[in-house]
Amino acid sequence: MRADARRNLGKIVEAAAEIVAERGVNAPMELIAKRAGVGVGTLYRRFPDRDTLIAAVGDHYVHTMADALNDAAAGSGSAWDAIRDFVSWVAAPGRAALSTALAVLPEEVLVNRTEFARVRTSWVEQFDALVRRAQAEGSMRPDVGVEDLIHLLTVFTCHPDQLPAPVAADPGRYLSLMLDGMTSGAATPLDGSGA
Description:
The protein contains 10 helices and no strands. The protein is an all-alpha fold. It folds into 2 domains: 1-48, Arc Repressor Mutant, subunit A, CATH 1.10.10; 54-186, Tetracycline Repressor, domain 2 (Orthogonal Bundle), CATH 1.10.357. The protein is elongated.
């Protein structure tokens, strides 16, 4: 692929991610082309239909998540700091809006695709290793796993319409409070025994 074609492809996917976050998965293709600074013909040559473009947006999104997790793990002093940094990054308003928009799609459009599934599996494994490291360091309670964090992110980023209004109005505050409850010092046994 020529360098200019590769640049156009990247611009289209990034513009599509922005527009989908703002307007949803049914946003006009013409608007995406305009934001990318390319003609509609160029857009359709690269992506013959909306599903192909949305699949590329999903792949781009999951790759950016994997990159952000790598950055958090490399740039933070402790595993717990890395977890907090990554969760905050994922839940940032623009990215959360993109997650919300993509969550309405049937699984076969994104989740069941080979590239999306491969990258998602990879970052989940890395996230799990970070959780286990935080637990070994003593900063994260031992009865919480990576699945708990993923469920928490899913609620806050993919389904904000299901949150109570005060929580939806200030999700960062409540996400931070929930993360605080995952630290080892705040742990109350989950079995309900209180011991």
